[in-house]
Amino acid sequence: MTTGDPCAGGSSARTAGEAMVRVPKTCGTGTTIGQARAFFADDHVHALLVVDGAQLVAVVERVDLTGPDRAPVAALGRLHGRTVPPSEPVAVVAARLRAEGRRRTAVVDDDGRLLGLLCFKRSGRGFCTDADIAARDADRDGYRPRAFA
């Protein structure tokens, strides 16, 4: 069945796991609020994924950044409402993100391991890919690490 929605990939059967960025930028649990503020200086950044190894600890958004620069950022984020399973249809995820005025959601497995990030393009006509991000990073400043802290 075709939905006609370019963000749903034209198919109601397409999943978050198929559309996600597989190598999202992440940070460790030692990341501070000050470091997170610097990360969000890039206007392409809408979510900071805090991980402990492969485990997603928190998803932090700009609105969460309150407190002193040296405090840990992980305590400010949350998982509820900011994650989806890889089997979630993108049409459902896209509708929820639009209704919430958001562009990003983390994709996690049943054990809470980070699998990727589902992110709308600025145009709202599709989802970002690893290739899109790599090309933008290369254009902007050459090499950019995919993780920090």
What do these coordinates show?
The structure is a single chain. The chain has 149 residues and is α/β, with parallel strands linked by helices. The protein has a single domain, classed as CBS-domain. It has four helices and seven strands; from the N terminus they run αβαβββαββαβ. Strands 3-2-1-7 form a four-stranded mixed beta sheet, with no helix packed on it. The radius of gyration is 15 Å and the shape is globular. Residues 1-13 have low confidence and may be disordered.
Structural class of the secondary structure composition? alpha/beta
Low-pLDDT windows of residues? 1-13
What is the end-to-end distance?
44 Å
Radius of gyration: 15 Å
Order of SSEs: HEHEEEHEEHE
Mean pLDDT over all positions: 84
Strand order within the widest beta sheet: 3-2-1-7
Give the proportion of residues in helices: 10-25%
Which descriptor suits the 3D outline? globular
Q: Regarding CATH, which class?
A: Alpha Beta
Query: By CATH's scheme, which homologous superfamily applies?
Result: CBS-domain
The percentage of residues in β strands lies in 15-25%
Task: Give the domain tally.
Answer: 1
What is the makeup of the main sheet? Answer: 4 strands, mixed
The count of DSSP E runs of length 2 or more, i.e. the number of strands, is 7
**The CATH topology, please?**
CBS-domain
Can you name the CATH architecture? Answer: Roll
Number of distinct helices: 4
